[in-house]
Amino acid sequence: MVAAVCAGAVAAAVFAAGSGSDAGGYSMRTDARFAPSPSHAASAAITYDQTLVPSGSWIEVGQHIDPGGATTVRLRVTGMRPGHRYGVHVHQKPCGADPAAAGGHYQHRPSTDPADVNPRNEVWLDFQADRHGAGQAEARHDWGFRHAAASSVIIHDEQGGAGERVGCFTVPFGWVAPPG
Questions:
Q1: Which range is the signal sequence, renumbered to this chain (predicted)?
Q2: Which terminus of the chain faces fewer neighbouring Cβ atoms within 10 Å, N or C?
Q3: pLDDT tens across 49-77, in order?
């Protein structure tokens, strides 16, 4: 499915392709151009800080679920601040005009214990933008997302488990049905 939407002078293109949960697993890829927060209704990607995530910068997120349930998430970006170290995590809810709208980090084992904020229990896609503002990352886990529990990727201004939210991309993540 291909859809293009415009927000004033800023255009955001979104492409999502998925293949069903057959014997080959499931794959999805989607991308968009970042637009300022006031025009969030027309873009899946929102910038909250244009010095770190400029309008028009690009993001792509892909997901592959192996037949056994292991999940790989891939991130690619262009147009970011060259040399900056970004923290990126999968979050629980879709993006909104308020950076807090995306909720907390998706956790495989939901917990309020700060020790569970780590790349083994969450999907971390931290990267450093190269001299052209491009970056990429990949995370692989032997577990998959729960139904409707992972909905966006948040870009933070620093690497690790925290930092200010400077960009958000709503992503149609797939999930693994529990055995049974």
A1: 1-16
A2: C
A3: 999 999 999 999 999 999 888 999 999 99
Residue 140: CB partners within 8 Å, gap ≥ 6?
A: 70, 71, 72, 73
- Kindly list the structural domains of the chain, giving each domain's residue range(s) and its CATH number in brackets, ordered by start: 2-170 (2.60.40)
The residues pairing with 10 across neighbouring beta strands, listed in sequence order, are: 7
Continuous segment of H or E residues that includes residue 13: strand 10-15
Pairing of strands 85-91, 152-156: antiparallel
pTM assigned to the model: 0.84
Distance CA 134, CA 176 (A): 31
How crowded is the C-beta side of 11, counted as CA atoms within 13 Å?
Answer: 3
CA–CA separation, 51 and 138 (whole Å): 24
d(CA 37, CA 96): 8
